[in-house]
Specification:
69% helix, single chain, mainly alpha, 4% strand, two-stranded antiparallel sheet, 180 residues
Length: 180
């Protein structure tokens, strides 16, 4: 394999794994936070203020959006082969290319819209009311465009691989697209 392709795959794989790890780390943080909140609430009658808001705004969004690149590159999305099972190999490649390019367009638009929304929320200093005041949550608005933007990069990589598989008549087997 070409060394620049290997380097690109390595960078993409490491980036995807890093952000999947970030998602896993936020699951752990959320678990600790909720356990501490419950413990403090029932033992000392003093729960952590803003737990619901922090879980909803920060933990959940990061848990959902951070691993999207890994899910895309390592083929973790649900795939139904009802229609492609009867197609010839070249037609399957063309279908994968069309779907991947469509996904690039959709995720690119979603990234753009997410960045626009995050910038507006950042400028307004978005915050949510808690039982004892307000908590700034505009920071959490960046999880969406970062996660979807990285998924867009993964779909672009899949599109390139599929294009070259069609051009040079290469075989595509399960796990060959993306990095899976």
């Amino acid at each position: 394999m070409n060394s620049s392709l290997e380097t690109t795959e390595k960078v993409l794989s490491r980036t995807a794994n890093f952000f999947a790890g970030v998602g896993g780390f936020f699951i752990f943080l959320m678990m600790l936070h909720i356990c501490a909140d419950v413990f403090l609430k029932y033992v000392f009658s003093s729960p952590i203020d803003g737990t619901l808001e922090i879980v909803s705004a920060f933990y959940m969004t990061t848990i959902v959006f951070a691993p999207l690149m890994a899910v895309t590159l390592f083929e973790g999305h649900i795939s139904v082969t009802l229609f492609t099972a009867v197609l010839k190999p070249r037609s399957v490649k063309v279908a994968i290319l069309i779907v991947s390019l469509f996904c690039v367009l959709i995720t690119a638009y979603m990234t753009y819209a997410g960045i626009d929304q995050a910038l507006r929320k950042m400028a307004s200093g978005e915050s949510w009311e808690t039982s004892s005041g307000y908590i700034a949550i505009w920071h959490a608005r960046w999880s969406y465009p970062i996660g979807v933007g990285l998924a867009c990069v993964a779909f672009a990589w899949t599109s390139l691989q599929t294009y070259f598989a069609i051009k040079y008549n290469l075989e595509i087997e399960d796990g060959d697209m993306g990095l899976g």
